[in-house]
What does this fold into?
Amino acid sequence: MQEAEFRTWLGKRLWKGEPLSKKATQNRVRRSLRTERGLQGLGFAQETLDQLFDDGQWEELLARLSTLMNAPDQDLAAVRAVVPQAEEPQGQLRNMIAGLRQYGYFREGRDPNYAAAGAEDEDEDDESQADRIRRYVLDHYITPARASGQATVSVTVGPLNNEMGLHMAWPNICQALEGRLFLDLAQVPPPRAEGPRQSTTRILTYALQMEGGG
It folds into this structure.
């Protein structure tokens, strides 16, 4: 990866109106380097993040890590390839994904402070984008529909992305809302899915009869 150039880019970035701390910058670089070392363990043939980006597989990498974050027990070998010491890998994977998004934005040539006021960033003390998606859908879709006695409720990925003011977060939305963590949180079975995976037109329909056996 282009470590020196990425550090320079991060040095110009503001987070909550303040320059990134030295520790925050180091954490973002370190997570990207760790991912690069684990690419083969994740199933990619490339040896560097830049090769992966140039080959058009960046979103595939983010989706792969999101899948691991939502269900780490399904592929522990891949998890250990990037977070070998983590007893609870989901938090580390979440921050790793957010850090990699920053590297992707750097490689795209974005200004370091593109939409900084509302942009998703990795900060251990802040709610992740996936967590915000899960909470938003629970609060604005599942709970109201259940309270009104509806048997099902549907979520369309594209409109949800726009409602939440997210930037092309369709893969994250699909991963967050189809993963076990959300299903357990909302107390619903896996949704009926229509439309291409990780696309704006994907519709997820949840049955609301699980809670309390109602």
Notes: Residues 129-213 form one domain.
